Amino acid sequence: MRIPQAAGLATESLSAHIGQRIRWARGMVQIFRLDNPLTGKGLKFAQRLCYVNAMFHFLSGIPRLIFLTAPLAFLLLHAYIIYAPALMIALFVLPHMIHVSLTNSKIQGQISPLFLE
């Protein structure tokens, strides 16, 4: 395809990229605080869900960091980062994993292996 699909400038350094992401996150928090799409009028449920997803996207790094570092902290420091039985963690994680797998299979038109994404 020879038609440009996007226009604009990309950030030139990692610090500029991080600064841009911080500005976007602040903007989303400001939208949530001032013009709360959950309580506003005129939006359908799907539109509200999209706004909430976009707003919480910038906050998803904290749980992701915890889930990525918790096994390493347990193995190296014998520290329990998450105080929960394995069944409770599985009940928390499995619906998300199933949702991700089903969404990817719907988007891609094929079923992909769950843990290779």
From TrEMBL:
Q: Does the keyword Chaperone apply?
A: no
Q: Which UniProt keywords apply?
A: Glycosyltransferase, Membrane, Transferase, Transmembrane, Transmembrane helix
What EC number(s) does the entry state? 2.4.1.12
Matching InterPro entries:
Cell_synth_A (IPR003919), Cellulose_synth (IPR005150), Glycosyltr_2/OpgH_subfam (IPR050321), Nucleotide-diphossugar_trans (IPR029044)
A single GO cellular-component term from the record reads: endomembrane system
GO biological process terms on file: cellulose biosynthetic process; UDP-alpha-D-glucose metabolic process
List the membrane topology term(s): Multi-pass membrane protein
Annotated signal sequence is: none
Primary localisation category: membrane
What GO molecular function terms would the record report?
cellulose synthase (UDP-forming) activity; cyclic-di-GMP binding
* Location of the protein in the cell: Endomembrane system
Q: Where are the transmembrane segments?
A: 49-67, 73-94
Q: What is this protein called?
A: Cellulose synthase catalytic subunit
Q: Which organism is it from?
A: Escherichia coli
Q: What is the lineage of its organism?
A: Bacteria, Pseudomonadati, Pseudomonadota, Gammaproteobacteria, Enterobacterales
The gene is: bcsA_2
